[in-house]
Design brief:
single chain; mainly alpha; two-stranded parallel sheet; 8% strand; nucleus; methyltransferase
């Protein structure tokens, strides 16, 4: 495929993705709750009195606030979450925006393992 043809295909995909429907916050919260409902603090080994190595939880309303400040996000954007934990922020961004890709970086294996099942539902 010629470079010009490839660029046209990519441009068409981006434009069609920008028109894709995204969930509004109340619907996104319901979906997120059903996806992450089975993940408990024990699954990610929360340790009382220690902040390093613990997963924090950003509530969906606060993620929405953060996204509102970052807007406008476009289909050509990539969202990067460093310290992604179980991926709940990534899931919300994927469900409520048209960003091209969501990437999560997490060092704690226990959090990554806990994220496998819920994120594969997306």
């Amino acid at each position: 495929m010629a470079a010009d043809d490839e660029a046209e295909v990519v441009d068409a995909l981006v434009k069609s993705y920008e028109k894709a429907a995204v969930l509004q916050l109340p619907d996104a919260i319901r979906v997120l709750a059903s996806i992450f409902n089975d993940v408990t603090a024990n699954d990610i080994h929360q340790k009382s009195g220690r902040t390093h190595g613990n997963a924090g939880e950003l509530l969906p309303v606060r993620v929405a606030d953060m996204l509102a400040v970052m807007e406008p996000l476009h289909a050509s954007d990539v969202f990067l979450d460093i310290g992604a934990g179980i991926g709940n922020v990534l899931a919300q961004v994927a469900l409520t925006t048209t960003v091209r890709r969501c990437i999560g970086v997490e060092l704690r294996k226990v959090a990554m393992k806990a994220a496998d099942k819920p994120l594969n539902l997306l």
